[in-house]
Amino acid sequence: MHCIIPAAGKGTRMRPLTWSLPKPLIPVAGQPILAHVIDSLLDADVDHITLITGYLGDTIVSWARTQYPGIRIDFAVQEETDGLASAVLLAEPYVEDEPLMVVLGDTLFSADLSVLRGETRNMIVASPVEDPSRFGVVVMDGDRVAELVEKPSEPVSNLAIVGVYYFSNGRKIMQSCRYLKENQLRTRGEYQLTDAMQLMLKGGEPFGTLDIDGWYDCGKPETLLETNRVLLEKNGSSGSPVLENSVIVAPCFFGDATVVKNSVVGPWFSGGAGVHIENSVISDTIAGSGSKFRHVVLMESIIGERSVVQGTPARLYAGDDSVAEI
Questions:
Q1: pTM of the model as a whole
Q2: 88 plus 22 within the same structural domain
Q3: Per-residue CA distances from 130 to 110, 137, 187, 227 (Å)
């Protein structure tokens, strides 16, 4: 099966990390976000991927070719971020009369995609949310989708579109996306995939919804850290750091050649290769490869690759009833 992965966004809410690293390659629980996405698709018999790149796209192309040499991966560049339907349409040269998936490049999810094999309806992965105004939503009529609405100002449904789509014939969604662009049909200034699917619905194409076991947000630093916690709890600890007079509190992920000296690390620490930690207490933190930590107490943090975080050791003599801030 073929899957299109739009990954062209700038990730402005994740700055300063995304000044030098595209958002889909930010690590979480030991792997880039995009690696989690692709691995879940390979488990669902996806054997052809088209990546839609844009901001820092060359970095994504190089990474994908290196990490997945045995998979057919095509690339298209979205020069203008003018909506998801526009991004999907860029993959049209690679789409045939066959089933097609679209999965957002920053959407981590847990769902049984094997049920899609042989599915003749189009399917949308959806999940209830408290604030549907932030999402495209699905209005149901029994077990079928009756209407799709992009970010409704008035609540019509609390069933949000997660960012995982299945089309029984990929050419049909391409036709709808092309119709939007040819007729300049924008919603909130962009060509919306929700609107393209609504055109299919009006044309008689059946849609259903697929249940989801988990949906993990990576859009902001605080939600990325929450996703890191959830995935580490789910997957357990991994990696074998070189330890010297240190304590590890599970679950944690350690990349190759990690060294921990005179420190307490965890829970929910995720580090890339070559991380060095000394005389520190670190928890609930994502650390990029090659980062170094000395004399720090750190929590709820995201640290980029090759960064150095260093505190100042202190010697303190404090009498009764003292209050000291160090």
A1: 0.87
A2: yes
A3: 20, 12, 23, 18
